[in-house]
Amino acid sequence: MAMTQFGNMFLLLALSCAFYAIIASVFGFRRESQAIVISGQRASMAVTIFLSLAIVGLWQALMAHDFRYEYVASYSNRALPTFYTFTALWAGQKGSLLFWGWMLSMFNLVTILVYRNKQIRLMPFVTAVMMAVNLFFITLNVFIAKPFEMLAVAPPDGHGLNPLLQHWAMIIHPPILYLGYVGFTVPFAFAIAALLSGELGNDWLHTVRRWTLVPWFFLGIGMLLGGKWAYMELGWGGYWAWDPVENSALMPWLCGTAFLHSVMIQEKKNMLRVWNMVLVISTFLLCIFGTFITRSGVISSVHSFTQSGIGPMFLSFVGLTAAFSFALVGYKLPVLKTPARIEAVVSRESTFLLNNVVFLGACFAVFWGTIFPIISEAVRGVKITVGPPFFNAVNVPIALFLLFLTGVGPLVAWRKSSLATLKNIFAVPMLGLIIALIILLALGMRHVYALISFALGIFVTLTIVSEFHRGALARTHAHGEAYPLAWWHLLLKNKRRYGGYIVHLGMVMIFMGITGSAFNKEAEGRLNKGESFKLRNYEMVYEDYRHLEDANKQVEEATMVVKRDGKVLETIYPQKHFYKVQRQPTTEVALFSNWREDLYVVLGEVNQATGEAIFKAYLNPLVRWIWIGGMILTLGTWITLLPDPRERETARAPRRAVRDREKVQRV
Amino acid sequence: MSNSAKRAKIFVVFIALIAAIGYLIISGLEGTFVYSRTISEVRRLGKEVADQGLRIEGTVVQGSLQKSETTLHCTFALADSLGEFIEIRYDGILPDTFKEGMPAVAEGKYHADDYFVATNVLTKCPSKYEAAPEQTEATSSSATY
User: Fold this and answer.
1) Per residue in A339-364, pLDDT tens?
2) Alpha-carbon distance A261 to A499, whole Å?
3) 0.95 exceeded by the pTM?
4) Distance to chain A for B60, nearest Cα, Å
5) Which end of chain A is more exposed for a tag (fewer CB within 10 A), N or C?
């Protein structure tokens, strides 16, 4: 059955259910009536159903090429491959807002299914907060960005999907990024619920930590996929350009990372409770603020590009949420504060705090650079653009300091570390650092930041390996296990700690890959068939050119033989696509990649009559390390997310207490 | 060492760190940002803006694009809405979407002999999400994303 015609109705029903869910949850909690709370939960589950039906409706319209719908006509056409027609759901603003709201309702459903019996005191407010955010997104869909808007006259064919989006990484990149953005609503909801219900024990903290790790992971992987897409599809030889769109994903990620570290202090020492609350709230606000930046066109307005109507809505939402949340924190301050104080200058607490200051410093630098054009235009009336030079100048030193802390922080023991233990722990990594420096200097490397980065990379890797080594040795002594088996058991017994080390290792690899960009080289050549151009010890010979065509696009393809030191390595085929409907060309990069470097070749213009063509080649060292680092980071995150036997024990006790208390209340 | 002395020590470390980051941000902004100016402004201010990083936008004048036969050098004229125009010189591959009669953005420096040396040429084209013609965003030949 076609759901499309009921699309608007589903959205209105979802709107009403979300509204009811908020009222019922709060009212039910006040009245201590579980029945009303449950009715609110059911209404919020109905939101999931109605939004799912609306999504199905939009999908059906896309698949049926029903160009009466403005959205379908704008983002698809008949010649578009089925796969991309399907993914056109999140290609435009209206569809992606709907998709966003739906994802949020799914997260809400999961929290209800998992926690309705475990966190009885918190759940009413969790549902209320989740639904309040959902209400905002549904409101946008109902009143401003209407996905089911009809055209007066249906065009014979649609505009088609932007060719730049027709790439695998771009197709999975938005949903994964949304999982990150949307997912941060869960820890926010739990934090607000803890404040409102006064259940500020450590129980909610476990939930929040876990539910921060999930969106944190997706946001990170989403950014990496975005980088991969930019690298392969935009053809300028890079993967990150400090664009506002990228920055708006990086900011909540940095803030969330700060929280993931400082939450450990609260779990173990019951310190930093206010601080952590502020971090959870800020991370969520940055997510919404990021959406505001990317969706409103406010930053682009500096370049005098058009604005869209949802900007003010987002800004008001951010403002109201911030005012409400921080006022609530202020109001609950007496309950939140703890007597514990930091006891030593060199202790894990202070290194963790240092870590937090640095992460937030980086976050603020990105924030400031992103909004500075708006401030400058508003205050001084001068239009300016802040570009990569600023972001690199600020963030490279901060990142290097963070890399240093990655090595030092986890190893400095809780509370006081004596000088003797420190010497013991860091002797080998320091030696590695010095040897790495000597070798790199001897090889002729003079780039200061790169030298520091590579040497620190070795240092951090050695600290992590020696941590595993020490733990494994202890196990072989204590349990008589074989040494390799001890490594495995070490990981399984304390997944959070050792999984965390693996995440750090992934980050080190990503850092090394990014550092490689200090040595990027490029060359351009205007070639006739048979001619070649050189880039360091590579030589690219332009052999042939051909013209291909399919329903969607025309393809120009060059055949190129790559030689290194005179020896033939491979034949590559850089292409240029010309999409017929959109009348827009895109670049298909030819890549020759190994652990050491990427040779990245772009076909510029071709003279179709003579076959003369312009090529641009880039030599980007260590890029593969970034993608592999991302995979290791993924592995590490999954390990930390697996249930830990210890944590389960500590988490169970308070839950049981809550359940018992609930039973008493109900009786 | 007393407790308050220790706390003071930690405090000093953090203040120093925050000051360092603040310094990085302020010194980073100096000299790295690029001014957006109209072509009319640039021509009126002339030598005053010769050393600034500039970003100008306009429409590529029909018939103005000239490309070298042997190198990547090209020149074209950009005109703003007031009809003022300026010669742009650029060494590099123009973006895929660069066309005469279409809007374009040039980043670079104004030369006192009344031409503009671009280090980067961008075009407006349908953005990542918004394929509709009224929704546009910059795409670049070198580094916007």
Assistant:
1) 666 666 667 777 888 889 999 999 99
2) 14
3) no
4) 17
5) C
